[in-house]
Predict the structure.
Amino acid sequence: MHDVARRSGVSVATVSNVMRGRGPVAERTRTRVLEAIDELGYRPNQVARSLKVRSTRTLGVVIPDALNPFHAAIALQVERRAHHDGYAVLVAETENDPALEADQVRALVGRRVDGVIFPAVTEGSAIPGELLDRGVPVVVVSFEGRDARLGTIDIDEGAAMTEVVEHLTGLGHRRIAFASSGQLEESIESRPEALRRALARHGLEPVAMDARPTAVCCTNDIIAIALIDRLERSGRRVPDDVSVVGFDDIPIAAHGRISLTTVHQDAEQMGRLAAELMLKAIAAGGHLATRVAVPAHLIVRGSTGPARAPGGAG
Amino acid sequence: MHDVARRSGVSVATVSNVMRGRGPVAERTRTRVLEAIDELGYRPNQVARSLKVRSTRTLGVVIPDALNPFHAAIALQVERRAHHDGYAVLVAETENDPALEADQVRALVGRRVDGVIFPAVTEGSAIPGELLDRGVPVVVVSFEGRDARLGTIDIDEGAAMTEVVEHLTGLGHRRIAFASSGQLEESIESRPEALRRALARHGLEPVAMDARPTAVCCTNDIIAIALIDRLERSGRRVPDDVSVVGFDDIPIAAHGRISLTTVHQDAEQMGRLAAELMLKAIAAGGHLATRVAVPAHLIVRGSTGPARAPGGAG
DNA sequence: GCGATCTCTTTAAACGTTTCAACCTGAGCC
DNA sequence: GGCTCAGGTTGAAACGTTTAAAGAGATCGC
């Protein structure tokens, strides 16, 4: 910047003015400065700027697993929307490990991100609260409101699970199980609870996986698809022997050979909304606690079918 | 930091010393400072530090499509490795759009990333060169060396395609096509060329998709899997009517219902290598132009089978 | 008892911006 | 001609760190 100033015979303050487009600057000067800028290939140093204006124009996205297309899609949308407004995004993986999550968030705080988005927050985590205490706006996409100060993209899991249960019971299923990744640390999991409640309304209870369920609901599509593979490799056909339902509706779920009955969520919309909420909160200079609900509904495909021997043993 | 200094009755320089763990500091002082630090919940401002030390400890990862699990896996590994060394990663999506790519890279330069990694670089892009000119180390994962100054994770597509062609011709296929995403802008695509050369060695030439090929090689697994779906929805069975081979070996390819014959690449290893190359280059203070080759080899699964009527018409 | 030598600590100048207040320079006005 | 006033421009102080160089006590040898 000094070089540009020297070369165009003005002060750095003026250069700053033309870069920022504010403050009055004579047309002649402006063009002279602009020339100098591209002769020198000058690119303003955002870190200096960040230091001065106390804003990094950077968002943190804390994601449990970038390989889950649902999470990836949300993160992608956030990135797009953020880039559009001149924000960059720092992604941090947690691998579902609370210690790593804490570590990552610490790093983000150190880097002074302007806000952090959790595309999937773990149930008991105190992290968002800590961020809010530090004055960092937070938006989570989550099943239900928690700390009132944070932005929430709400998905109505209860309603979705009700649809699932009605579909399944309508097909004659009574022994229904819930499946999630083994290393699930009672985290993220509001879903088994939602299922339990929906079943209860039909006088049912979830059964264990080794109780030969005729249908199983999975915590997400990845698990569901893996389960189908496991079942079929061990000789049980889906949906003839057992029905499987997923959650998220990732792209592969619609593939003819997979044809997974699942709960559809609009990841693109959710990501965009999350980013917009965040951007708005930042612009408003504070935590605007908003909650926006997005619908989720069942899509019936080929992985669910009539129960084999309704109510009977396997 | 001033607060910490005041509270513990020392100068900011001393606080800095204890934070950085360098310079001699008396045990008594150190503990006093540490106490003050956590009483105040002080977190050093990395942006100020970055400005001073002229290093942001941040890497840029420029990725065409975060929804492609192969790219996502590489990015993920980079993030892990980088985090391990105290680096953060800024991800930028290009959506295969050169203009957006340029824009994103400009943003990264403005933010003074210490290096940028391209998990998949577009063929004609001048971008890496520009970065190198600015003194920003670059590593690309790519098919062949280009600018000698950049780090390259090399994959031997020629050898892989040779395996593919041998497998296919061994099954009696002679009319073999190549398929890639429609909006492919002759970018990334060294693969059709590699296929062409491998075929030539058997006296064959690729045919067009509408010439009723008996086998088709896809530019990646996503395309291959989508192709299978399209074919089957239009009544042609895979592999009975047409064989399909992919590239990358993303996780779903191994699923029993998909069972895609494909070229396996170790994304995890590639990501890790890319990150390590970069970290090493940064530590060495320059562009250490290294090329590390990773093997890629064919995995035969169920999506390829004997040609129907060898050499004959569909 | 006095300089030399340690060990620990502080002073102050960066790093590259932004921004506020102050400063010019003409022009317009009476 | 002196006044105000507006448009342009600039000086300099931040922002929160790091780090080289200088300082301040102790300790020690003689």
Summary: Confidence is low (pLDDT under 50) at residues 310-314 of chain B. Chain B touches chain A through 49 residues (CB under 8 Å). Residues 1-2, 12-13, 16-17, 19-20, 22-23, 44-53 of chain B lie near DNA strand D (CB under 10 Å from a C1').
